[in-house]
Structure formats: structure tokens, C-alpha cells
């Protein structure tokens, strides 16, 4: 039987079908109540994802759109050092959208929240010409243990979790920009998974909370690219950085597959890996990398000179200015 | 000089220009921190407004779109008995949107928040084919003093704040569905203001908090119409209601202007007046109406029989079933 459209269900019918995906009572009143733990501050972030701008049926099935939408927002919470409480979802849909698409979207969001914590606390649905998913994520944080962009200090090491460029490589595979036969099956699947089902790094946040560190810590997530994250932190902190080319977390096999130049570009500028970029005292940085089981690397250091340079060795103080293409959504 | 478009400003330029409208520090990190008062629960609500579905340049200048978007969300907080903390704004815009439109939108939201409390805590901007404004409002409430839909009890009086139908009449004037010369200038302006700049009823919420009442109280806002609010409360509480036709808050002059039948329809079904519908013990209801200075009326009572009837007199137990057209956004 073909899936009914959202127009045939009507707004009330659609909301009824969405209830099982939401926290109990989430759609019963004008708003929903949530409880913070004592002494915690609320952390809030909003992202809007638009079809054919941020996602497309061509590269991402709706369940993965749901996961990615939730994960991108949760990653912003992780980037502040917060733990997730939940999300609200504002959904604008063309009337001919099949119910199955909506169900898969919500299932994907629920999958992600089940893994990392939190629930869907209702939202809104309405008609539009283009699918738009607007998510607000809510988290809580000990106000003494927040990660901010503006508190980096010269002499600190710059630590990056995970590989960078894998999400971009996964997208390239899905768009057939690069040939799938250039890489082994497991590698291909890992890159595509990084694009479709990114993992917000709450494990790294938990580890930071457990370590004996001086707070606040400087950092942010790398959703708009590794270079962009370094630049944002430096600008907001009034510092500079030296990034060592040889230490960059280029995913294994990427240089072989697309050549060293494009691999470097995707690692620095690819974006959407949703990893963390942190500034820590050198000793703490080493301990952090070790305790995260190698899923992190020290890629450079914070400098008092405000240039941001890509250098060949630690002693090299010239290097090449690192620019960030960032993402311009207009 | 013509206004630059959002495409010519770029995402970064646009965000720079939005900063003055936002809470200090709201756009500097991946997310924003907010502080709840001790012992308060968080209240969250999300609304999506789409151009040509919820608003149109024809009837509503962007500054009023901003006010209405904020007010509609704040009204959902008031409907829960909460006080506003602030909003986040997810904005999807066609690239050719003039900056002036965006500035007016934010100015309107800021106007509303200045009046009722709270600030803009950042958000997101991105490209889309159609203007979409997604607002999440955050509030706080004493968890012992929440207004819910499901706690109405037979014997309670149904109290409604303000006039109903004025927002619909204002829209009709703007759409030229009705002739402007049928009403005096002040009346016309009042109806249009109700449509363009509705007032969330935090004054009524404050009054409820000051009165010696048994909590929780049943109620909701009348954003989808007075009849819809009565029906939602009754359904969720497993009760019915008798609404007295003669007590309905039909705006002065509306019957003269559009005839008694349409006036009744707009009062019951018009929607977007953003008033409150509350269920209170009869004595408390009378005190509430008196203390609100006549800006409220007892329109009927909660019954154990689950029918919802529009009756002529209190003694009339037959009446006419009240149906709610509600709003179906698909």
C-alpha cells in the first residue's frame, strides 16, 4: 500500500502519528515542561536544514536526514560541554510529502537521541513549498565547566578529535564525484557513515569533565570545517595558531584515493565531521589524546601572534596562512 | 540607497548585522547559555511560520510579522503559566530578500520581547525558496503552578480573556473582505492591531499566580480559536462544556459591521486572538474577571457530560453542538 501524503492525513492526523516518536505528553499542551538538574544552566542551539541546500534524497535517505539533523544540533551542545536534554522539531513540508518520509525522519532523530540522550519534545508542523527541518536542541551544563570559543591562551596545544574530511569523502562517494572502486568496502562504508550518521563527541566532553582541568576550556565543534574552527577560536580569543601539516587528521586511504592536495583540502575545509577542536595545556592535551584511545591528535599550538599558519615543522615559524572557506549559505 | 540583499551580505555579514538585535554573546558560540531561577522548570514551545501560509506582505509588514511570530510563541508560554526567558530564531530566506525586511522582522521580535520580557538568543540563518520563520520560545514556571489542558473539572466556570474575533476582523479589513467604511477609525485600528500585534496575556497569568487558587489550573491559549480551545481542554480532561451564546466576547461593533452570524463565527472560530481560556471554580472565576478589570468574561461551565454545547441560557441543556473548525495547515 502506498504511503499516505501529509495532506491526506491533515495536520491533526499527522500530529497523532508523530506522538509515538515524542516524549510522553510532549504534544498535549501549548508547550512542554522540562526539568534541569539542580545547579545546571540551560544550553540552547537552533539549526535550520533545507532540502536541496543541506540534504537531498539523492545522497541521504530520510532516516539519515533525521539522524544528521539531530546529531548536528547535539554536536553544538557537545561543543559547549553540555549534556543533551532533548530537541524540538519545526517541520515545514510540501502537502504531497509521503508519511513514510516523515516517519523515517523522526525515526532517525529518535535513533540519534536514544544513542546520546534526550527525547523529542514536540514542535510544530506546517505546509511549505520546500522541506525545512528546524531543530532546537536543549542541553544542560555545569556553569563552571563550559567550553567557549573566546578563552584560548597562547602556549596551549590544539587538539582535534577524530578524522577530518571523511564526511566530505562520504558525500563525494554518494555524489559520484569520486569512484567507489578506488577504496575498499569498509573504508567506503565508514566515509559514507560519517556523512550520513555523524557522531557528536559527548564521549570527549565526558572525558574533559573527568580530567583535572582549569575551566572554562576553549573549543568548538568542526561542523564548518577544521580550519574554520581554528579561525573562529583564534579570532574570538585574540590569538593565533600554528597548525602542523604532518599532524593533520587526514583519514587513512584518503590521500591515496583523491590525491594529497584534495585530501588536505577536505581535511581542513570539508566540514560536517562534527568533531571537537579544543585548546588545552600541552600536558593535559597529551593525557586527553591518550585517554581517548588515540581518537584525537595534537595538531598544533596557540600563539600570541594572531596569524594562523600551516607549518611543516614545529620550528617553522613562517608557514602558509591558513584560510577558511567556511560555509556561506547564501 | 536600496537595501542590500541577504545574498550580497553573505551569511557572515548577515549574522554580524543581526547581533545588535540579540542578547549579548548570543551569536558568539555554538550554543547559548541561559539561567533559570532556582526551583523553576523549563517550558519550551516551537512554531513555524511560512510566507503565504501564515503571513504575507499584503496584510502584514515585516515588523508586524516579527511581533506576531514572537507573540504567538510567548502566548504558548503564557498558556502554560510560564514567564518568558527568550527565543531562538531559525530563519530560511530566499537570497534576494532585502536586508531591510530582515531588520524589520528582528525589530518587531525585539519590540515584543521588550514589552513582555526575554531576549533573542541567537539561532540560524540559511537559504530557501520561501521565507520561513521558526521560533522556539523558552520560559520558566514554578512546577507547582502550571496551566495544563487536562485538569478541567465539572462545575468549573470557563473564563475567557479579551475579545474574540477581532484578529479575524482585522485580517478581513486588510484583505478587503469587509469594507473599511463600515466601522469608525479607532475600531478599525484596534482590529488591525489585534491581528498585527497581538498581546500575550502574561498580565492574566500574573494575576492567577497572585490569587489563592488550587493548582494546576486548566487552560490554554485561543490561538486556533475559542471553540477549538474549549474542545481541546474538554477532550484532554474527559469533560464537556456549556457555552452561553449571550456571554461570548464578541468585539463591540462587529455584529453591526458583518452581521450577527459571521460575528459569532469569527468569535468562535476566528483564531489568532492569543487570549486565554481558563477553567476556574465559579467564585475564583468571578474574582479573576473583576480583578482583570473587565478584560475577561465567564462564558460557560464545565460539565461531566462530554458534549460541548452552545446554549441560549444557563438552564438550557439542549443547545447546539459546538464544533471547531480549528486550523488544518495541510
UniProtKB/TrEMBL annotation, chains A, B:
Binding locations of ATP: 106, 123-124, 149, 223
Binding-site residues for substrate, renumbered to this chain: 54, 272, 327
Domain of life assignment: Bacteria
Record-stated family: Belongs to the thiamine-monophosphate kinase family.
Nucleotide-binding recorded as keyword: yes
Keyword Kinase among record annotations: yes
Binding site for Mg(2+) 1: 46-47, 124
GO molecular function annotation: ATP binding; magnesium ion binding; thiamine-phosphate kinase activity
Organism: Vasconcelosia minhoensis LEGE 07310
Enzyme class: transferase
Cited Gene3D superfamilies: PurM-like C-terminal domain (3.90.650.10), PurM-like, N-terminal domain (3.30.1330.10)
PANTHER family membership: THIAMINE-MONOPHOSPHATE KINASE (PTHR30270)
Gene transcribed to yield this protein: thiL
Residues given in the record as Mg(2+) 5 binding sites: 224
Binding site for Mg(2+) 4: 30, 45, 76
Protein residues bound to Mg(2+) 2: 47, 76
Record's protein name: Thiamine-monophosphate kinase
Amino acid at each position: 500500500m502506498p504511503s499516505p501524503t501529509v495532506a491526506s492525513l491533515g495536520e491533526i492526523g499527522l500530529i497523532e502519528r508523530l506522538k509515538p516518536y515524542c516524549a510522553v505528553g510532549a504534544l498535549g499542551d501549548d508547550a512542554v515542561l522540562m526539568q534541569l538538574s539542580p545547579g545546571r544552566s540551560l544550553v540552547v542551539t537552533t539549526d535550520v536544514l533545507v532540502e536541496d541546500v543541506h540534504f537531498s534524497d539523492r545522497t541521504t535517505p530520510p532516516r539519515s536526514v533525521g539522524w544528521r539533523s539531530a546529531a548536528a544540533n547535539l554536536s553544538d551542545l557537545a561543543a559547549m560541554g553540555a549534556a543533551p536534554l532533548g530537541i524540538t522539531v519545526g517541520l515545514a513540508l510540501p502537502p504531497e510529502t509521503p508519511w513514510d518520509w516523515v516517519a523515517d525522519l523522526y525515526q532517525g532523530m529518535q535513533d540519534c537521541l536514544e544513542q546520546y540522550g534526550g527525547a523529542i519534545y514536540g514542535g510544530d508542523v506546517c505546509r511549505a513549498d520546500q522541506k525545512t527541518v528546524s531543530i532546537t536542541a536543549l542541553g544542560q551544563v555545569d556553569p563552571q565547566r563550559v567550553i567557549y570559543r573566546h578563552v584560548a591562551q597562547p602556549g596551549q596545544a590544539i587538539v582535534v578529535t577524530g578524522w577530518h574530511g571523511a564526511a566530505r569523502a562520504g558525500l563525494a562517494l554518494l555524489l559520484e564525484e569520486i569512484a567507489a572502486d578506488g577504496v575498499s568496502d569498509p573504508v567506503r562504508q565508514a566515509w559514507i557513515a560519517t556523512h550520513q550518521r555523524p557522531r557528536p563527541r559527548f564521549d570527549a566532553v565526558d572525558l574533559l569533565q573527568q580530567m583535572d582541568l582549569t575551566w572554562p576550556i576553549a573549543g568548538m565543534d568542526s561542523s564548518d570545517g577544521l580550519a574554520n574552527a581554528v579561525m573562529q577560536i583564534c579570532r574570538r580569543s585574540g590569538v593565533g595558531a600554528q597548525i602542523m601539516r604532518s599532524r593533520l587528521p587526514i583519514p587513512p586511504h584518503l590521500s591515496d584515493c583523491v590525491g594529497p592536495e584534495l585530501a588536505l583540502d577536505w581535511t581542513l575545509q570539508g566540514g560536517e565531521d562534527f568533531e571537537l577542536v579544543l585548546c588545552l595545556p600541552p600536558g593535559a592535551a597529551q593525557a586527553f589524546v591518550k585517554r581517548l584511545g588515540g581518537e584525537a591528535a595534537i595538531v598544533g599550538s596557540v600563539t600570541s601572534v594572531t596569524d594562523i599558519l600551516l607549518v611543516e615543522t614545529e620550528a617553522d615559524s613562517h608557514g602558509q596562512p591558513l584560510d577558511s572557506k567556511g560555509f556561506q549559505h547564501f
